[in-house]
Each structure stands twice: as C-alpha cells, then as structure tokens.
Amino acid sequence: MTHDPRRSGVPISRAGWRWAGALVLAVAANIAAGSALAQPRAPDPKDWPAVLAAARSETVYWNAWAGEPRINAYIAWVGEEVSRRFGVTLVEVKLADTSDAVAKVVAEKVAGRIEGGAVDLIWINGPNFASMQQNGLLLGGWAEELPNFRYVDPARNPLVRSDFTVPTQGAESPWGMAQIVFYYDAARLKGPPRSIAALRDWACANRGRFTYPEPPDFLGATFLKQALIALTPDPSRLQRPVSDSDFAEVTAPLWAYLDALRPCLWHGGRAYPDNQAALRPLLADDEIDLAFAFDPSAASAAIASRDLPQTVRSYVLDGGTIGNANFVAIPFNAAHKAAAMVVADFLLSPEAQARKQDPNVWGGFTVLSMDRLSPADRARFAALDLGIATPSLAELGTPLPEPHPSWMSRIIEDWRKRYAAN
Amino acid sequence: MFVRFAPALTIAALIGPIAAGVIGTLLPAFGYFPALAGRHFSLAPWHALFASPGLVRSVLITAFVGMATTAVSLTLVMAIFAAFDGTRQFRIIRRFVSPLLAMPHAALAIGLAFLIAPSGWLVRIAAWAGAPIERPPDLLIVHDRLGLSLMAALIIKEMAFLFLMVLAALPQSDGSRALTLARTLGYHPAVAWMKAVLPRVYPQIRLPVLAVLSYSLSVVDVALILGPTTPPPLPVLVLHWMNDPDLRLRFLAAAAALLQLGLVVGAGLVWIALERNIISLARPWLIDGQRSGHEYATKVVAGAAVIVTAGAVLMLTTALTLWSVAESWRFPEVLPPTLTLTNWQSQIGAAPTPLVASLGIGALASGLALVLTVGCLEHEVRFGRRVTQRALWLLYAPLLVPQVAFLFGFDVVLAAIGIDGGFGEVLAAHLLFVLPYVFLSLGDPWRAFDERYRWTALCLGASPSRVLFRVRLPMLLRPLLTAAAVGFAISVGQYLPTLVAAGGRIATLTTEAVGLSAGGDRRIVAVYAILQMLLPALGFALAVALPSLAFRDRRGMSTGA
C-alpha cells in the first residue's frame, strides 16, 4: 500500500509558513556577503537530445519517502531501466520523512551552496512543495516541457497543475494520483459507515475498533481535513489560506467531532498508530475493524502481498474523499539537473506508469490520460487487473480538492495541543 | 612513536566530540546560531521550550523510566548474585548473559513488541490454549503512557550489562574470599553476599550504574519502538525538533537537549543522595550479626527475574525468527501457516547496502578502538603509568553524557567548520561509544599478562615493538578478539550516532530496523532485527574460533592467555 511523500510532509508546526522569516534573513545575509553567484544555466528540456547527452553517466540522488518496500522495489526497477536506456545511475536516498530532504536543501541554501547540491530529485507534494516553492528552492518551468508530458491532460485532470491549490508552474512533474479509500474485512464487518458523521456513531457503538495515524503523519492529517470538509459549514473557505480571524469558527465543528470521537478510538485515543502502513497490521490482527489509506489500490496490494485476507474490500465515503496528485521536483541547486529530468520523464512514460499501476508491483494510480495514449499503450493499462478490493473509477468519483496547505499545518498544530500533550 | 601519543589521541577521540558537541548545543540553546540568523544571546529558546505542550509530562515520564529502570535492574542483579553466586545455576546464567549483552537494544525492543502487543504472540498463545479471547484486548501495552514496556526492554538489557560489570568487579573487590569467610561464619549464602560482598562491589560498579541511569534517561531507539507517544519521552522530543524542516526549531531543540543534560545530572545527584541514605539505613542491618533473613524471598525474586528474562528473550527471538520467514501471520494464528524465504531474498538479496554499512563501520570502529586501546595500555607498560580514577571518568564520559545533548551539537560544529558529515563523521561518532567498551574489555586481561614474558624477550635483545608484536599481542589474541567483538557489537547497535552523523545518508541495519518498525511490514522489520542480532553473534563466534584455530598446535594457549 502506498503512501506518498506527503505522509511526511507535515512538520510539527506551521513550518512552511514560518520558516520564511529566518530563511529570508539568513539568505539575505549570505547574498549581502557576496556569496551568491550567478546560477549556472539549467538544461533546457525543449532541446531534449542535449538533455539526454548531458545526462549520460550522471548520478541522480533521488530523495524519496521509503516506508513502503514495494515502492522501493519499483524505484529500484526505475534505476535499472534508466541505467540501461540512458546511462543514468539512480541512487534512492531513503527518507523517513520527506521534510528531511526539504531541510537539507534549506540548509544548503542557508550555507550559500547554490550549485552542486546533494539532492537531485524529490518525491513531493502539498506543504513541502508549497514551502519549497515559496522559498525559491525549486527549479521551475521544466516539467511541462518533458517529452512525455504530452500524455498528461491537465484540462481533464486539473490536479496535476494544482498541488493543494498551489499552482505547480512547471516546478514539479506529476507522478501519481491518490485518493482516500476506507477498507475493512467484509467477513467481519457488515455495512461500514459511509460518512464522517456515521463514522463517529459507528465508532462509538463499537469502541476501540477505529483509529487514525497520529498527526503530523500525512494520512492522519488528511483524515482531519476530510472530517473538516464534511463538517465545516462552508468548505469552499478552505481553498483560501488560513487566517486567524476565522480559524476558530471554521474548525469548531471539527474539534467538537474529535472530542466526541476520541474516547471511542482504539486504546481510547491514548496512543495512535504511526502512519498508513501501521494501520494495515492492526486490521489484519483484528485490533481494529476499519482502516483507510491514501491509495485506492492499497487493499488489493495488501491482499496480493498476503498482508490482508481475500475478504477485504474498500470504498469511498458518500460525497467523495480527498484526492490529490504527487510529483517529483528538482531543487534549484541540484548537481545533476539533466539526469533528474531524464528520470522524471521516464517516470511519465506509459510503460513506467502502467507498471506502477499494476497492483502486483505497486498499484499507484497513473497521471496519464488514456485518450492521449497510443492504442498499444492503452492496452497496457486495459490489461491490468486492478485487484478485487480496488474501487472502480466510477466508484471513486471526483476526488474532493485538498484545502490550501496552510490549513493542514495549522490543524496539526492545534491537534497536538489538544490531544498529544496531556 | 604511536605508543607515546596513544593516550593523548584516545582522550581527544573521547572528549573532542563531546566538548565540541556540548558547545554546539549550548550556544543555540541561548539563541546563538549565526547560520540561522541567531546572532544575539537570548532566552527565547527556553521560553519556547517551556511553552511547548506536554513538556512537563515528557520530563516526568523520562525521569520515572530512568530512575525506575536503574533501581529495578540493579536490585535484580544484586538478588541474582546473592541467590545464585557460586551455584551450578550461576554458571548457566553466566553463559546466557553475554549473548544478551550483544543483542542490540532495537532488536530486543522490536521482538518484545511482537511478544506483548495486544495481538502479539503471548495473547495468541493464551487464546490458543483456551483463554476466552476472541479479539485482541483493547489494552495499551506497547507505547503505554507510563513507559512500562519501555522499562521492561531496558531492564532486560541493563541487567545483562550490570551483571557483567559485577562479575568483572568481583575479583578486584576480593569478593569470593569475603563470601567464603562469611559463609564459614554461618551466614546464609544470600545474606553473606549482601552483607560481605555487596558493600565491597558497589563502589566498583558505581560508574556503570550511573551509565545505566544516563542511558535509560536518554535512550531514543527503544523509546521510539516501545515508549509513550502522546507525549513522547524528552529525548524523542529533541530528535523530532532537531529533524523538523522548520530550522528555527533547532533553537528549541538545543534548549531541550540541554534540559536533557540537566535531567541526567539531576537524576545522578538524586541517585547519589539515595545511595547515601540507603547506606546509612542499611548500616545497622549490615552489622547486626543476623545470619539469615529474607533469603527465601531473595531466591524467589532472583529466580523469577532469571526465568522471566530468559523466557522473554528466547520467545522474542523465536517470534522474530518466525516473522522473518512468515508469508503471513495474522491474529489469532499461533504459528505462521506458511513459511517462505522471500522476505530475506527481497531485503538482503536485493539490497545488501545496510548490511555492508553495518559491517564496514563496525569493523573500522572496533579496529580503530583496538589500536588506540593497545597503544594506551602499551604506554602504561612502557612508561609505568596506571590509569587513574580520573582517567576512568574520561573513559566513561561518552556513556554518562546523554547522546542527544552533544551529538547534534557535534554535527553543527563540524558543519560550521566546513566538514560535511558522511562516513568519517559516523566513524568518529561510533568510535566514541565503542572505545570505552573495548578499553574496559581489554584492560584487565592486558594487565594480568605475566610481565616476565616481556622481560625475557627484552633480555634476549628484542625491541619493545618486537616484544609487543611477537610476544604480547599473539599471546593476548583471545582477549584482543573478544574486545574487538564487544566493540563491533556496540557499533552495530548504534542508532542515534549513525542517524545524526550521517544526516540520514548512511543506512545501517539498526537505522533500517528502527525506521521500519513504525511501518506495517513486520516480516521485513524482523529480517533486519535478526540480522542485527546475528552480526554481533558472528563477531563473538569468530573471537572464539580464531584463537582455537591459531593455537590448534599450542596446547598451552588453549585456555587463553
């Protein structure tokens, strides 16, 4: 099952929105000290043969969240392919938390290292992207120039251009789609709750049988956002940045809900699982009855890997669940930009995307639009058996948009004050 | 040449990183950190620290776990010696302790979690044996709020450490003769041990006890796996804040790291005060001439401690092994229905990097530590200067100063002078913790070496170096290799030093195991935990096998030097 870079994404506090001060000061100091030089020219993806030539025999340090063995195995396969086809060596720098890579780039910028950076490619989205973009830590304008971007249709799938409402501006290349799905063992549980309100009633009628990962974990934070969208009177307010003037008003229903839910949670809400992957064994071991993941094929993949029994099924809440795209980005000071572009382009190829969507490999949903593919490539996707526990595209419906990233940071901070400190 | 400078080099390797690290923590804790625009001293980090939610509870839990772990493990070890010293059972216990000491903390914690979780092996066995358990009980066992499961794992490990320390201290404190004398005077063996041996042994193991206290107060990896989470113990909070991409939290983290140092110092002072009280309270009892009393209770407690510990360790090792070869193993299955080697193939066959990293760092760190230690000890021999009590404190410094209080600072200082982490830094950080153990392990056999061999060789015209390399080192091969194996085991188990010094770029078995333990795939976590246990065991096996091989036609060497 999967996760994404987001799991991590969320710093304990309002990170992205608060670094700016210190960062700007420090960087300004560096610039004032004359340590900033003109940046070397980035490779131009419009001249793709030149990019390929420059990339040959370069090594790409790809910083990726590595908490899921099947994703690591997929990345290893990508490494073999780009080495064979383009002479690019791929090294996966395994992260426990995507924010570690962000911190690394921040530290390099603070230290005045504007080229030869240690991070070439980051698996990223959401608040991590927003803060890197805001602080000018990413290379921009390259992603939509990649040759394989022609298979992506932003008109049909606007999420590939709008990362948690923040415009991508070609600074990150879409890699996968994800959406919240709930899963349960149909042999044990009949009629799982189909709305946020029903979830609380069900949880309190079946105490100790539901939980969510501890924020700032990404999935835990997303559960909070899902509940907020369902409960707040005007969800469209969440598309604009948070503000102190109405934060309390907008989120009051969420806290009332969580206060009521907490005593009904697994272990009475006195401890929470660490992350998405930790929910799976809890369901497998009958410690809980209902779990969820940020990945429609999570349950099918877990059945394939024998983590969960054949009788597990997944579904989406009535009214839809939060969905988003995840991306790869290149830091402004990456040492091997051309090779990073080659890897990003390969990740977008129909072959790599189809392999990724195979639940026996990973089960990560594609960002490509089927009607832009050649018949042969369409057939690759059509041939995939998405798995018995994966909802169909019709069942998934239109994903709910992510709130502006500032909400996530702020909600996590308040959650920790209320539930993690006493 | 090297021998002349070995003590200075060793002290530099021990004290340099700690001193640099504490400074690198101290300055940011008071707002000074130019790279992050902190150019003025201020108390702002402390205001932020004391305003952070849950801090008081974190500190209280940490203090409770640390003090209780130390008190319980020390008491149990004393009870075990009192009840069993000199018996046949004692030799069995002794045999069991060394492998337990070699088992990395993280592996033990992961295995213990497999055992005691609500859906863990113990509950499954109970359900299988007919207990009315249909579902895993909704009890908070792992990550419990008082840190009891964290304490359990620490007590198991610290008992092993203290046991070996007492064992090493016994000959120096003339314990066995005191014991015999007391017994001939009619004291019950257990009472004889408590009244005649303990008062002589305790001063010798005081530093190790304080090291246990410091370790239990500052442990990170075991706390991540078993400790409370809402809020976590203080050292885990420091780690979270240090790794936050909001770099301004580094100030807060530095203040918290300093608070951690204060907590350790405070707890140490409280401990010493308690010692004094207990000594004065116990004095009348020591000299009241009572030949017996409570020996039955002592025996029961000690026996229970041994049986529970041995049972838990055997079971958790078995559970880890089973998980590593399970295809699936869901509650309430007592055993995995099908076994497979895919977990091993997919992890180690496909990606041996962490294994290679653990091996390489461990071998280099213990090798370096061995060279420095031999240099120091040979310095003693040639220049006739014994290690003083003060030097012993230096040796213990890395074990007494909490890791979180200086490791991050060390990293900051290196970055500030332009040294960019990586392998060398990891090696230096490991060396810091390996060196004391290698030194403690090799010191006694080295000093017990019969100097007449050396004089004879010198009289025959051999140079001091030749005597060292042709006479002393070959004859001390067995203790040398044992010391190297101890150092290797310590290195393999290091979590925080690897994580901080490498900035996450070097993955070892331990960092992988701890990192994966938060996730969902227990089969893979088990593979790493087992490997983590196997490497040190392999080291010790080599330390036994190589001398036997080398001395196969030297009967006089067959029992060791």
Task: Kindly summarize this structure in a few lines.
The complex is a heterodimer of chains A (422) and B (561). Chain A is an alpha+beta fold and 422 residues long.
Write up what this structure looks like.
- The complex is a heterodimer of chains A (422) and B (561).
- Chain A has helices spanning 6-9, 15-32, 48-55, 69-86, 98-110, 126-134, 196-205, 218-231, 247-261, 276-284, 298-304, 337-348, 350-357, 375-382, 393-396, 405-419, and strands at 59-65, 89-95, 121-124, 162-163, 166-167, 172-179, 181-185, 290-293, 312-315, 323-329.
- Chain A is an alpha+beta fold.
- Chain A has 2 domains: 6-177 and 324-390, 3-Layer(aba) Sandwich (D-Maltodextrin-Binding Protein, domain 2), CATH 3.40.190.10; 181-323 and 402-419, D-Maltodextrin-Binding Protein, domain 2 (3-Layer(aba) Sandwich).
- Chain A has a 5-stranded mixed beta sheet. Chain A has a 3-stranded antiparallel beta sheet with strand order 8-7-9, with helices on one face. Chain A has a two-stranded antiparallel sheet with strand order 4-5.
- The two termini of chain A are 32 Å apart.
- Chain B has helices spanning 2-29, 44-51, 55-84, 88-102, 105-116, 121-128, 148-172, 175-184, 189-201, 206-218, 221-226, 234-242, 249-286, 295-324, 342-349, 353-383, 389-400, 403-416, 423-447, 451-459, 464-475, 477-493, 496-502, 509-517, 522-550; strands at 32-33, 38-39.
- A two-stranded antiparallel ribbon of chain B has the order 1-2.
- In chain B, a hairpin with a 4-residue loop joins strand 1 and strand 2.
- At the A-B interface, helix 2, helix 4, strand 2, helix 5 and helix 10 of A face loops of B.
CATH architecture of the largest domain in chain A: 3-Layer(aba) Sandwich
How many strands, what sense, and barrel or not for the largest sheet of chain A? 5 strands, mixed
Please state the CA-atom Rg of chain A, rounded to the nearest Å: 21 Å
Give the radius of gyration of chain B. 25 Å
Assign the CATH superfamily of the largest domain in chain B: MetI-like
CATH level-3 fold name of the largest domain in chain B: MetI-like fold
CATH architecture of the largest domain in chain B: Orthogonal Bundle
Report the sheet-strand fraction of chain B: under 5%
Strand order of the largest sheet of chain B: 1-2
Q: Give the % helix of chain A.
A: 40-55%
Return the CATH class of the largest domain in chain B.
Answer: Mainly Alpha
User: Which CATH C-level class of the largest domain in chain A is it?
Assistant: Alpha Beta
